[in-house]
Amino acid sequence: MPELVNLSTEEQLDLQQWLACSDCDLLLERKPLAEGETASCPRCKSNLDERKKDSCNRTLAVAIAGLISVIPAISQPLLGLKAVGLANEASLIQCISSIFQSQLYLVSVLLSIFCIIVPVSRLLIICYLMILVRRNQRSTLGIRLYRYFHEWEEWGMLEVFMLGLVVALYKILGLADAIYGLGLVSLASLLISATLVTQFLDNQYVWERLSGQR
Amino acid sequence: MLNKLPEGKHDGLCTRCLAPVHFRKHNSIERSWALVIASLIAFIPANTLPIMTVNYFGSGTSDTILSGIVTLINLGMAPVALIIFIASFLVPLSKIIGLIILLITANRHSNIQPVQRTVLYRMVEFLGKWSMLDVFVVAIMGAVVNLGYITSIVPGKGAAAFAIMVILTMFAAHAFDPRLIWDLKNNE
Fold first, then answer.
1. CA distance A12 to chain B (A)
2. pLDDT at A1
3. Based on the structure, what is the number of domains in chain A?
4. Left if phi > 0, otherwise alpha if psi is -120 to 50, otherwise beta: which for B8?
5. pTM of the full structure
6. Strands B59-63 and B151-155
7. Which residue range forms the structural domain that includes residue A122?
8. How many CB atoms lie within 10 A of CB A31?
9. Chain A closest-CA separation from residue B115 CA (Å)
10. Does chain B have fewer CB atoms within 10 Å around its N or its C terminus?
11. Residue B132 forms contact with A (CB below 8 Å)
12. Is the domain of A188 the same as that of A100?
C-alpha cells in the first residue's frame, strides 16, 4: 500500500531546488522565473514551468464568465431544422434525453459526463481555487480539487461537441433550412471561457500557493 | 514537484497533493496491451453495426460509419465526409497503431528515435477525445432531425460500440508510461 512519506522541512527545501520533467523524468535544477518567462526540458522539449502575468484575476474572471454561460448553453436550443411547415429544435439536454430514449443508455451517460458534468465541475473548482489563492489561504481540500481539475481535463469534451455541432449543421443544411438557437452562442462563449482558463492559469504558482510554499 | 520515497520503496503519496506516485506505472506494458486489444475488438462492432438510421416518409436506411461517409460524398458533402473519415476512422485506427508501435519498441528497449516516439505518444494522448466526434454528431442529429413521419434520425448501436472503443484507447494511452521510451539499451 502506498503511504505518505513525512519529510523534515530541510529535506523539503532541498527537493524544491529540483524539478523532474513530467514526460521524460530528466532531473533538472529549478531556476526562479520572472513574470512572462517559460522553462522547457532540454531533452524532450516539454513545457516545464511558466510564470504568467496577472494570472489569478484573469482566470477567475473568465471562469465566472463561463459559469454564466452554462445554463443557457445546456437548456437553450442549439440547432433546429425547418421543412414543409414543420420545425424542430434541440438543446443539449434534449440531445441527451433523445439518445436515452433510443435505448443507448451508456452513450447518454457519457454525453452528460463529457459535455456537462466534467466541464462545469472544472469551472466551479477553478473559481473556488482562485478565491483561495487570492485570499492567500492554504487548503488541503483545494489541493485535492486542483488534482481532480488536472486529472479530468481530457474527459471534458465540449470542443469536440462544438465541432460535432458544426458537422451536424452542415448535414442539416443539406436536408432543409437550419435554425440557430441561443444555446449555440452560449455554448461558444462557454467554450471560449474554458479555453481562456487554461491559457491564463499559472499551474506552478497555484500549487505553491495552495500548499503554502509561497 | 519532487518527492522522496523511502529506501527500496517504489510507491508513495505525493507530499503536496496526496496523489499516488511511483517510479514507474505498474505493469504499464501489460495493461496498455490489454486495453489496446480490447479497443481493437470494439473497433469491429463500431464499424459494422449501424451508427444511425435515417427514416424518410416511413422508409428507413441504416448507415455504418463507412457507408455514412459514402452517402455524404454522394450527397456532395465531401468536406464533411473528410472530417468524419479523419475523426472516426483514421484517427482511432492510427491511435491504436501508434500505441502498438510504442508498446513493441518500449518492450524491446529500442534505441530508435526516442524523441520522435515521445512526440508520437503526445499525439496519441492529444487525439484521444477528438474521435468522439461522430458519437456527438449522431446524438445531435438524432435530437434535431425529428419531424415525425416525414423524417427522423434514430441513433444505432454502433454509436455505443464506437464510444466504448474511443474510451478504451484513451485508457490504453493513459496506462502507457512514456518514461519507458527513455529506457534505452545503452543507458544502463
1. 8
2. 42
3. 2
4. left
5. 0.82
6. unpaired
7. 52-210
8. 10
9. 6
10. C
11. yes
12. yes
Cβ of B142 within 8 Å of Cβ of A98? The answer is yes
Tens digit of each residue's pLDDT (9 = 90 or more) over B84-141? 888 888 888 999 999 999 999 888 887 788 888 888 888 888 888 888 888 999 999 9
Instruction: Give the Å distances, CA to CA, from A124 to A60, A64, A116, A158, A193.
Output: 10, 9, 12, 16, 13
Closest-approach residue (CA) in chain B for A170: B80
Secondary structure (3-state) at B37: helix
- pLDDT, tens digit, for every residue of A105-155? 999 999 999 999 999 999 999 999 999 988 888 888 888 898 899 889 889
Domains and CATH numbers, chain B: 26-187 (1.20.140)
For A183, residues 6+ apart whose C-beta sits below 8 A from its C-beta are A72, A73, A74, A75, A76, A77, A78, A91, A92
Q: Among B140, B162, B174, B176, pick the best mutation site for testing chain A contact (most A Cβ within 10 A).
A: B140
For B50, list phi and psi in degrees, rounded to 5. -65, 135
Give the separation between CA A18 and CA A30, rounded to whole angstroms: 5
pLDDT at A84 over 60: yes
- Within this chain, do residues A95 and A199 fall inside the same structural domain, yes or no? yes
- Which residue in the set A88, A160, A170 is minimally distant from B133, CB to CB? A160
